[in-house]
Specification:
Elements lengths: L6 H13 L1 H29 L12 E7 L11 E2 L2 H7 L3 E9 L2 E7 L2 E7 L2 E3 L3 H5 L3 E4 L1 H5 L4 E5 H8 L8 E4 L2 E9 L12 E4 L12 H6 L1 E8 L5 H15 L6 H4 L7 E7 L7 H6 L7 H32 L1 H9 L4 H38 L9 H18 L1 H9 L2 H5 L7 H36 L10 E5 L10 H12 L3 E7 L10 E6 L9 E9 L3 H4 L6 E2 L10 E4 H6 L5 H4 L3 E2 L3 E7 L14 E5 L5 E6 L3 H15 L7 E3 H7 L2 H35 L1 H9 L4 H35 L11 H26 L3 H7 L1
Parallel strand pairs: 6-11, 8-10, 17-22, 19-21
Antiparallel strand pairs: 1-12, 1-13, 2-12, 3-6, 3-12, 4-5, 4-9, 7-10, 8-11, 9-10, 14-23, 14-24, 15-23, 16-17, 18-21, 19-22, 20-21
Helix pairs in contact: 1-13, 2-11, 2-13, 2-14, 2-24, 11-14, 11-15, 11-17, 11-24, 13-14, 13-15, 17-23, 17-24, 17-26, 17-27, 18-22, 24-26, 24-27, 25-28, 26-27
């Protein structure tokens, strides 16, 4: 049987759909929302699975990663010691190498309208950086520019951001008070490219990126290192060889007191092909925002497919109910001579029109929400939504429309005219049961997704609002600009002095790193006090703080005393550090000497420096005023205090934008990826819940039509409206319970797996599961309420006449 669509079929389908605007609108919108959601999720999946595909030799290039095992929280990072490349070349392990070192800075762009501050992340690179990756130059001489310390190489997109034009040759960017001129412009690469090619500088002598003063410092400086191994050397062999080089050239020269009794190797080195770096499990465990989990991405792909299948099932349900309602029309048309194939063509034409209309609406929805979705997932996805992606959306929409119309077309074609005119429905009981199964699956998907999103949101919210050991509400964290020089400068000193004198500031202090931020770790090897003279050392994380640090935070000692405004000699420990150093109790450590001549003057209360994914460890505090991170306690509204501090900043650091944030936001950033995951799951859960509610609306509508005579007979025999309402609602309640039975156990297992990554859990219990079930039940009740009321108010005479 041939079913080519004819123009007359499409015109008739348009007239029929126009006569039923409610049905058409609901059908089109349901499919459009699902198509838009799938399109957005597919862009995220494509972004992950095509990482570094823009680099022709990504499969041959490897990136080096390291883990410094001496640190208390030893995480893998995509970095390596700078001199490692030269050593590997000497040993014949690699053919070529290049490196980059990125720094977050503020810069100034001078325009006729005045100066404008911008945040930049320049990469200081080797002269062969662009040639190594095969990136074409659009204007200028990139190789010559990277050989000069005062020249910039920018991408087209970065030129537009900084200067408002892609033709930025000769433009000047002021960094740390010094001018840098754009000497070359390179092509833009997709956002899912690991090497940062937006803003490049050659190596030179700068205050904010001074060359290492010695070979030892060079071996401890981290750079992004990319290598091309010689043929025949695999990643495991290369990683082991590089680890051996680092052990011999750097770690073997460390003081014995720092390394004795410690886990070896002191530094772990491995390499990953650049094509696979996004899914590297070690890097993802250390930085979930930058790297991805292949299982999670595959789950998103399945989620997109699930949403589309739910939408298709909803449309099929609605079309099947509509087909059953049109059985008299179908019978009359068959009596007048139309064939089954002709009816099927018309129904397929209607589905094709619905699919095409849904695709147009989905394209508009997706185009409007792409920026919001990119912000939601924290990924730059613009390159994933190119022309090919939009063509894929069009094909998917049209295919969805045609596939969704097969079952209704089959129903219409197979209905005998005599059966339809006799009042018998055109759908079999098997079809009705199939729709019930689909509705159960919709409920299960909605409940599971909502429960998972609630669990992630609950834990992230609890962690970000957990008491850090001090009140962060009136605390601002200021990171002073690197242009002022290291380790301290007159500009820094003057700024801090005037900061403390501002009327809105109650106190200001210094710290080596903000509480809740793990950007810098200071490790001290402390000798344990032994009466027999034996030497044993313990690695303890140190925090260098100002003398008034504890006063500004409003903290009191657990034992002994803390640093005060007068210069104190000695150190302060937390309770874990006192126990780690072998004292019987924290109080017993007060007044004792550690590491030979360091006297413990007091025990500090516990402060949470890490996220809830890490167990708190021992901390030693030493007094030091010359730190680039300041903490200011302000009075009154924080926004007003921020304005005064901004003005002070502009006077002392005119070349840099203020780097100021609330102490609470520092903690919240640790769980930013979790909150994004919660919002993404909530979005998918909302779509699934809407589709499930749409499905139950269709099913309840069909139930009322199918059981109209039964309802009439029950009313004639004395059934009250309440009994009729329960009769209709009982069906969807059963389906809801079945959906919950399918969803709650997997949702609980997934939540337990997610929560196992935290050392402390939010006291949520089973509430996410209960709330998810209640929320979906409430939405489903609203969805079928209209049909329940229609059944309760059904007039017997009208219902019998309609039969």
């Amino acid at each position: 049987m041939k079913l080519p669509l004819k123009p007359n079929d499409v015109r008739l389908a348009w007239r029929l759909l126009s006569k039923e605007p409610v049905y058409s609108g609901v059908a089109i919108l349901g499919l459009a929302v699902a198509l838009a959601a799938c399109f957005l999720l597919a862009g995220l999946v494509r972004h992950a699975w095509t990482y570094n595909d823009a680099l022709a030799e990504a499969g041959r290039i490897v990136t080096v990663k390291e883990r410094r095992n001496l640190f208390p929280r030893a995480d893998w990072g995509e970095s390596a010691p700078g001199p490692l490349a030269a050593a590997a070349l000497r040993q014949g392990l690699i053919e070529a190498a290049t490196s980059a070192r990125s720094v977050d800075l503020g810069a100034r762009v001078d325009t006729p309208g005045g100066k404008r501050f911008v945040q930049i992340r320049p990469s200081v690179v080797d002269p062969n950086y662009l040639a190594f990756f095969g990136v074409p130059t659009l204007a200028g001489d990139a190789a010559a520019a990277l050989a000069r310390p005062d020249a910039l190489v920018v991408s087209r997109a970065e030129a537009l951001r900084l200067f408002g034009t892609a033709d930025a040759m000769g433009k000047v960017l002021t960094i740390a008070g010094l001018p840098y001129v754009v000497r070359a412009i390179v092509a833009d690469l997709p956002e899912n490219t690991s090497p940062d090619l937006r803003l490049l500088l050659g190596k030179g002598v700068r205050d904010w990126d001074k060359p290492p003063a010695s070979d030892q410092q060079a071996w401890f400086r981290r750079v992004g290192l990319y290598l091309k191994p010689v043929p025949g050397i695999g990643t495991e062999r290369l990683g082991a060889a590089l680890e051996g080089i680092v052990a011999a050239e750097r770690d073997a020269r460390l003081p014995p007191g720092l390394t004795e009794g410690k886990v070896h190797p002191l530094t772990s080195i491995a390499v990953t092909p650049l094509a696979d770096v996004f899914f590297d499990p070690d890097l993802h465990a250390s930085d979930g925002e930058r790297y991805g989990n292949p299982a999670a991405i595959a789950g998103l792909a399945l989620l997109a497919l699930l949403i589309l299948l739910l939408a298709i099932s909803n449309y099929v349900n609605l079309a099947a109910v509509r087909t059953a309602a049109r059985r008299r029309e179908i019978a009359v048309r068959k009596t007048l001579g139309i064939s089954g194939a002709g009816l099927a063509r018309q129904f397929l034409a209607e589905s094709l029109l619905v699919g095409a209309s849904s695709t147009l609406v989905a394209a508009v929805l997706a185009w409007l929400t792409i920026p919001l979705f990119c912000e939601l997932v924290g990924r730059p996805l613009a390159s994933s939504y190119d022309l090919m992606a939009w063509l894929g959306l069009a094909l998917a929409g049209l295919a969805t429309g045609l596939l969704s119309g097969i079952y209704p077309a089959w129903l219409a074609a197979r209905v005998p005219a005599s059966a339809a005119l006799g009042g018998r429905a055109g759908e079999t009981m098997q079809g009705y049961r199939m729709r019930r199964v689909l509705t159960v699956a919709q409920f299960a998907a909605a409940i599971g997704l909502v429960a998972a999103s609630l669990a992630v949101w609950w834990q992230a919210r609890y962690a970000s609002e957990l008491d850090p050991g001090f009140d962060p509400t009136q605390q601002l964290v200021l990171t002073l600009p690197l242009e002022a020089g290291k380790p301290w400068s007159s500009a820094m000193h003057a700024f801090r002095t005037e900061l403390a004198r501002l009327p809105v500031v109650e106190g200001a202090t210094a710290i080596s790193e903000a509480i809740g931020r793990d950007g810098m770790q200071i490790i001290r090897s402390v000798a344990l006090p032994h009466a027999d003279g034996a030497q044993e050392r313990v690695l303890i994380e140190a925090k260098e703080v100002g003398a008034n640090f504890f006063d500004v935070l409003g903290l009191r000692p657990v034992a002994g005393k803390l640093f005060s405004r007068e210069k104190e000699q000695g150190v302060v420990l937390n309770a874990r550090a006192a126990l780690a150093l072998g004292f019987a109790s924290p109080e017993a450590a007060v007044g004792q000497l550690v590491d030979g001549d360091l006297r413990v003057i007091g025990i500090a209360p516990e402060l949470r420096y890490t996220s809830l994914r890490d167990k708190p460890g021992p901390i030693m505090y030493t007094a030091s005023e010359e730190q680039a991170v300041l903490v200011a306690r302000v009075r009154g509204p924080v926004a007003a205090a921020r304005a005064d501090i901004d003005a002070l900043w502009a006077r002392h650091f005119p070349n840099d934008a203020p780097d100021i944030e609330t102490a609470a936001s520092v903690f919240a950033r640790n769980y930013r990826d979790d909150m994004r995951q919660a919002r993404l799951l909530a979005l998918a859960g909302t779509v699934a819940m809407a589709l499930a509610s749409f499905g139950i609306y269709v099913l309840s509508s069909y139930t009322v039509r199918r059981r109209a005579r039964e309802i009439v007979l029950r009313k004639l025999h004395g059934a009250t409206p309440r009994h009729i309402g329960l009769l209709v609602a009982r069906e969807w309640l059963l389906l809801l319970v079945l959906g919950a039975a399918l969803a709650l156990a997997p949702a609980w297992l997934w939540s337990e797996r997610y929560l196992s990554g935290f050392v402390e859990r939010a006291p949520m219990g089973s509430w996410p599961l209960v709330l998810a079930f209640g929320l979906v039940a409430a939405v489903a009740l609203l969805a079928c309420a209209r049909q329940v009321l229609l059944a309760m108010r059904m007039a017997p005479a009208l219902a019998l006449r309609e039969q």
